């Protein structure tokens, strides 16, 4: 079953105020900050949309507060994809699907990256398969949309500031609506 634009809005309106896995922000704050960072970096609308929606799987497959503390990997990077696939192109979907593996890759290729991860990101990294080997990181970097996923991951890591001001959800919902309209027309 596909989500509608109204369903996406409803998920953020209903569950967006829940805590973001032990971080000092809510799910909605995290989504808005990630999208704002993408926009500030000059990303195209597909990557801005992916940035907003990258953790939608947490809102669809609610596992309670900080599931990583209980040894749960909720596979959120995959969970939302069947619901979003009828609405969006791979330019939106693939960075979402790859953003967890992008964390695993960055730990392998950026010497200081692991030390900058939050406690929850370190816990979830272990549940998600751990740091990539050099060979796995190389293979990941050759995948379509890997570059976009790496950018999304870096914004994801920075989007945990409780006082950061962002555009409102309505701003990003208009982007989502434009992309859905384009996808339907294609």
Topology:
Blueprint: H1 5-15, H2 27-40, H3 45-53, H4 56-60, H5 76-79, H6 81-84, H7 90-109, H8 113-116, H9 119-127, H10 134-141, H11 146-158, H12 169-185
Pfam families: HD (PF01966)
GO molecular function, one term: hydrolase activity
Protein name: HD phosphohydrolase-like protein
Could you walk me through the main structural features you see in this protein, from its secondary elements to its overall organization?
This protein has one domain (5-185): Hypothetical protein af1432 (Orthogonal Bundle). It has twelve helices and no strands. 42% of the residues are buried. By secondary structure, it is mainly alpha-helical. It has helices at residues 5-15, 27-40, 45-53, 56-60, 76-79, 81-84, 90-109, 113-116, 119-127, 134-141, 146-158, 169-185. 63% of the residues lie in helices and 0% in strands.
Using only C-alpha atoms, the radius of gyration works out to 15 Å
Mean pLDDT: 89
| Structural domains: how many | 1
Q: Given this structure, which CATH class is correct?
A: Mainly Alpha
Give the overall shape, derived from the CA principal axes: globular
In short:
With 186 residues, the protein is mainly alpha-helical. Helices cover 63% and strands 0% of the residues.
């Amino acid at each position: 079953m596909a989500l509608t634009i109204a369903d996406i809005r409803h998920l953020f309106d209903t569950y967006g105020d829940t805590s973001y896995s032990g971080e000092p922000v809510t799910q909605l704050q995290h989504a808005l900050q990630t999208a704002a960072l993408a926009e500030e970096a000059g990303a195209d609308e597909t990557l801005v949309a992916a940035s907003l929606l990258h953790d939608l799987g947490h809102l669809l497959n609610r596992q309670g507060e900080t599931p990583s503390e209980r040894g749960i990997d909720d596979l959120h990077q995959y969970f939302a994809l069947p619901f979003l696939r009828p609405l969006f192109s791979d330019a939106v979907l693939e960075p979402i699907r790859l953003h967890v593996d992008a964390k695993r890759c960055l730990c392998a290729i950026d010497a200081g990256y692991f030390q900058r991860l939050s406690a929850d990101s370190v816990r979830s990294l272990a549940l998600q398969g751990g740091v990539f080997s050099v060979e796995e990181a190389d293979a990941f970097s050759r995948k379509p949309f890997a570059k976009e996923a790496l950018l999304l991951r870096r914004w994801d890591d920075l989007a945990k500031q409780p006082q950061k001001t962002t555009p409102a959800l309505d701003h990003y919902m208009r982007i989502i609506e434009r992309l859905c309209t384009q996808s339907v027309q294609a």
